[in-house]
Amino acid sequence: MMEVDVLDKTIKQAVEQVNADAAWPLVEAFSTMPRWRPEDVEASAHDIARRLTALGVPVELLEASLYLSIPYEASVVAGGEAFAAKPPAYSITCPDGLTGTLHHVPGSLSANVSSFYEKNRDENAAAAERIRGKIVLTDGFASPNKVLEFQEKGAIGVIAVNPGIDRHWGICSSIWGTPDLDDLPRKPTIPVAVVNNVDGQKLIALAQAGGTATIHTRLEEGWFKSLVPVVNVPGNIEPEKFVLLAGHYDSWDVGVGDNATGDAAMLEIAHVLWNNRSTLRRSVRIAWWPGHSTGRYAGSAWFADEFALDLDENCVAQVNCDSPGCRWADVYENVACMSEATELCQSVIGEVADLPFGGERPLRAGDYSFNNIGLSSFFMLSSTMTVEKRKEMNYYTVGGCGGNIAWHTENDLMDIADRDILIRDIKVYLAAIMAVANAPVLPFDWRATSAEFDATIARYRKAAGEHAPMLDAVTASLADLTSALDTFYAGINDGSIDEAQANATIQNLARILVPLNYTRGRRFSHDPALPVPPLPALAVASELANHGPESLGFALTQLHRGANHTAAALRQATRLVKQAHN
């Protein structure tokens, strides 16, 4: 494997400079500033810029035009009782109310963050006809895949029954960022509301008795001016190349753990990096995103669109900062990390925090707006509480806040943040970013990705059964790539491949292999906010057993085309690696 020295003298000195003197006051200020209405979001962008300027860090406020959905209020009236509710962003506004018969589709909660964005409900074929023309009650959160499927099956409205006493804000659209013409058919066309579990159980009982309900929602949807604060810390040897560090500054309510702590972390990292800019080999670009909450990552998607060609040409890695520094966050488990960056992340967390690293495949979530371009990426959510602590607190799974169920509620207040944990997490982020920015050879090991692909293809071959030979070309192409990568990294270690050639190859491999593993759509587009399986062009192999004679041929055709696509991409990657020896 590659040697990753994360704590060289330069990085140690920078890490030792980290404190919360500037970061903690930002957390405290944001704890009194709601940040989802446009005027409040703009005020908080100016606040970030003011604080950076006071620290002597130059900042630019870019202006984006984003299509957003601003939720205000909702209620559900049923059985003579009015239930408090919240409307997810992108639910249609329905202030006069929509009435319909209730129908309950049972579901289960995710056991961990890894499965949080899956459908997570019963697959009952007979339920499809019963859904049509009804208001569907569904257990859990108003996730976009649930709402989209219920809408497609004819539901006229959806009520999500949250698992606890809180009602969680969220967004029910699967469209990633501002829609384009191809995205528009997937816009929600029905009202959606979320209720807490106590009220939800009353509604479920009413549904079982054949009762009706009326959903009221009020939202505002349209184009909004949004500010994107950006800091560029220039490198000295390869200034055109850069690491992108980013996280969202808009939040639900005041959102202390999600994501005021992340905003503060990036403020401190910008401060330390600016003071140590003379030591940087490559540049670091730091951005604060709007439109995360009300536009399904609209700010990061806008940046990916606006600077696509520069990102394609020069960005060596993308690092996401969301929910660091939360109380009881004693472990680094379920930390998003693409496989080529696993050793880097493990080394950083081990050496800086003296904790083990539990990485996982990045979800299709959390401002990962750069997969279609093909950027190596790591981190999304930061440290979290242990499974044992969650059990002790009787917490269900949420998508941030270090596992605290205040996530996306008005309870995400100062008591969710922990100053000491925030300092530790800032140090981890800073060390990882500097390790990438300063490494003579980029610290990404594509042999780990090759091994991941090998395991994925083995699973698909097993699932395909008698049709496994359709993947023979993919298996052979991957073997060639693996061999070429072994020779490539040996050449780096013995000096027969120079740094410039090695870095160009490592970066360009990302442009091929990241889209291959994480996207279905074309480059420079944005896949929906729906789960993406590994090597998605081959994923139909795992579904062949579900197809009868009438559809098996179509599924095999899809697999054939996916295998061609995958094998061709692997061969392209192999040619690229072999060229490094010329």
From TrEMBL:
Superkingdom of the organism of origin: Bacteria
Domain Peptidase M28 residue range list: 233-421
Principal location: endoplasmic reticulum
Coiled-coil stretches: none
Biological process terms in GO annotation: proteolysis
Pfam family, one: PA
Cellular component per GO, a single term: extracellular region
UniProt subcellular location: Endoplasmic reticulum; Golgi apparatus; Lysosome; Secreted
A GO molecular-function annotation: carboxypeptidase activity
Record keywords: Carboxypeptidase, Endoplasmic reticulum, Glycoprotein, Golgi apparatus, Hydrolase, Lysosome, Metal-binding, Metalloprotease, Protease, Secreted, Signal, Zinc, Zymogen
PA domain sequence ranges: 123-203
Gene3D superfamilies assigned to the protein according to its UniProt record, in alphabetical order: 3.50.30.30, Zn peptidases (3.40.630.10)
Oligomer status and interactors: Homodimer. The monomeric form is inactive while the homodimer is active.
Protein name as it appears in the record: Carboxypeptidase Q
Organism annotation: Devosia epidermidihirudinis
